Each structure stands twice: as C-alpha cells, then as structure tokens.
Amino acid sequence: MDAGVITEAAAIIRGGGLVAFPTETVYGLGADACNARAVARIFEVKGRPRMDPLIVHVGGWEEALLYGEMSAPPARSLAERFWPGPLTLVVPRKDRTPWIVTAGLETVAIRVPAHPAALELIRASGCGIAAPSANRFGRVSPSEAIHVAQQLGEKVDLILDAGKCPVGVESTILSLAGAVPRLLRAGGTPLEEIENVIGEIERPTGDPSRPESPGQMERHYATRTPLTLTTEENLDPETLRSRRTGLLALVAPSRPEGFAAIEILSESGDLREAAANLFSALHRLDELNLDCLVAFQVPETGLGLAIMDRLRRCTAGLPDRNH
Ligand code: TXA
Ligand code: MG
Predict the structure, then answer these.
(1) Full-model pTM
(2) CATH architecture of residue range(s) 227-315
C-alpha cells in the first residue's frame, strides 16, 4: 500500500479520528486505543452497545505487554506460534487500556494482525489501535472495503482499501484470564492447531443465549434477508416453489434447479477458501433482495467451526431456525 496513504491514515488516528483498515480477517474500524473520546466514536458510528468491549491491535509482543498482563503460561507460546495472525488473547488489563475499550471489564482482548497494511498503520500511528469489525452492529462483517463504504460510508474519516481480506472470518478469541484457557469465539485460527500447542481447551457451552463474550449475542452477522441453515437432503422443496430463494453452499448442489441465485464457497470443498469467501457471498446474496436465503451446513472441522458459528448466529431468533 502507498506510504502516503498510510501516513495520512496514521495522522487521522493520532488526531483522534476513525480509520477503517484491512486485516487478514475482516476490515476493522480503528481508533487510538488510548484516546477514550476517539474510541467512544467507534461505538456511536457502529451503533454498538457500550457493554461490548473492543480488541486492541498491536504490532508485536512487546507492545502487547503495554496493554495486558501476558504472564499466563500459554500466552508466550501462543503468541510465538500464531502472532501475527487471527488469534485474539483475552488477558488481565493494564492501566494504560482505557475502561471504555474493555467495557469496564478487568480483562482486555489483544491481537497482532497479519496484514501488512494493518501493521504499517499501527507502526506509523505509534499506538495500539482499538477496533471492532467495521460493520454496523449485528450485521454481516466486511471482508471487502466496499462493504464498509456501504454500511458506514461518510461516518468514517478514511477507508484504507487493500482488496479482499485473505482469511475472511474474524479472529479466534481465547481467554487466558481464568484457570484454564477457554474458547470465546471460533475464528480464523483453527481450534485443532491451538490445541496442538497448549493441549485441550474449554469450549463454549453451546447455549447461544448465554454468550461467552459480551459481544457474542445470539443474533449477529445477520443478513437482512432471513436465512435458514439446513442440508440438501432436508431442504423443503415447497420453499423453492413459493419463494425466491438464494443458496449458499460449500460445493455445487446436486439439485440447483429452483434457486434464484447460488453462491458456492469453494468448488473443491476447501474450508479455508470457503471462509475467505463467506461474508462476500452473504453480502452479494443479501443485495439481491430475495424472499429468503438457505445455507447448507459445512463440516465443523478447521475453519468450518467458525463458518458454522457465523451461519448459526445469522439464523438465530428467526421463526424458521429449526430447519
Ligand atoms: O478478526 C477480528 O477479531 C476483527 C478484526 C478487525 O481484528 N475484529 C473483531 O472485533 O471481530 P469485534 O469487536 O467485531 O469482535 C470482538 C469480540 C466481541 O464479541 C467482544 O465482545 C469480544 O471480542 N471481546 C473483546 N474484549 C473482550 C474481553 N475483555 N473479554 C471477552 N470478550 C471480549
Ligand atoms: Mg464484529
């Protein structure tokens, strides 16, 4: 990315403004993590409840130490193995981290993003950058700059466009603040890979009405068009006859007839490729203003766990959620 643009973006961050920037997972809406007023604007622009804490994005381990207490035994080995990358660690907060960032919690979420533009922005700004995903609250996350422009547009001081985010789903969030490491959100770093480094970790209870993280509410990542999660075998053919239906599937369906639009996440069934395409495909389907969307379940291994988590939240609270 052009050095001049990064310099301009860093000046906005230092001046208390908001910059939407690419990370390897999704676009973030960033502000100087130490500027409480600037961080307050993030909540306003997103329409996000103040009780939902933000992730502090830093350039490396040394900088992480400024914001959080990184002394829990697995912290160092996880950082060495997965940073920069899509893993967020929740650790006890240090005084430098303003309360507005942690939403009053004694813990702070920290990660080192693996996107060159994000790292350059952090370095040029000279501070940690507090950033949620750059979507309106509850809506589908932005994996391309155009999604940010559509949802937040003029409310952001600058949008850094670096094309499509390579991982495509948000970071995996792991809490190291309790007695044992605990998964708070499935994401871009597969759980299996984390367990290879630190052994078995505690999984969420699976009850979406009791979120692990303040921000993991039941209905989230929602398309405006109602979405049903099902399998090709269980699909009710009536749906296709009576309503204009869009399909989201990992691989090409054996019976494509009757769908008004079809998005295939990966021709070869590769879950990494599918995750990278997930939010773009959801945005495209949503823009068609169809009557309903149907998503076929994917295997819950590797990045499939994060994909299914996002799709479940997309359907939560809808009357036809049991399909
Ligand atoms: O990949 C990502 O993580 C992207 C990019 C931009 O870095 N960011 C992202 O941020 O997904 P956001 O705000 O959309 O999701 C962060 C989640 C929220 O559910 C929030 O509640 C949770 O992290 N979180 C933040 N701080 C926490 C804390 N101290 N304890 C528990 N959960 C926390
Ligand atoms: Mg988000």
Answers:
(1) 0.93
(2) 3-Layer(aba) Sandwich (3.40)
